[in-house]
Amino acid sequence: MSGLVSYRKGLHAEEAVERVYSLSGREICARRWRGASGEVDLIARDGAEVIFIEVKASRTHAEAALKLGPAQIARICASAAEFIGGEPAGQLTPCRFDLALVDGQGRVEILENAFAA
């Protein structure tokens, strides 16, 4: 698959996930936020809590989930720490990491607090 096609599929997946969060009343405050350590696909707010969302798309939700590895989790966590460093409560800001899976039909499955395990 060409880079441009992959890029566009990624954008469509992120837009689908953004709709799910917005419809649930959570505000998307950043898209493709980039820190020194890497990028976070979406960042949402649910009251005082900041939600860092990694979006993965593939033919099935299971295949999408397998695309997230330990090195990427570490980069996302480092970027998240940088982001919340700018929040009023700093590193004491309540936050969680969600994994949003998008299948080939555009169906979205959200795994809340996916990095806790």
Automatic annotation (TrEMBL):
Any one Pfam family here would be UPF0102
Q: Which InterPro entries match?
A: Restrct_endonuc-II-like (IPR011335), tRNA_endonuc-like_dom_sf (IPR011856), UPF0102_YraN-like (IPR003509)
Task: Output the Gene Ontology terms for molecular function.
Answer: nucleic acid binding
The record, for Gene3D superfamilies, names: 3.40.1350.10
Give the family per the record. Answer: Belongs to the UPF0102 family.
Q: Which HAMAP family match?
A: UPF0102 (MF_00048)
List the protein's name.
UPF0102 protein JI744_02150
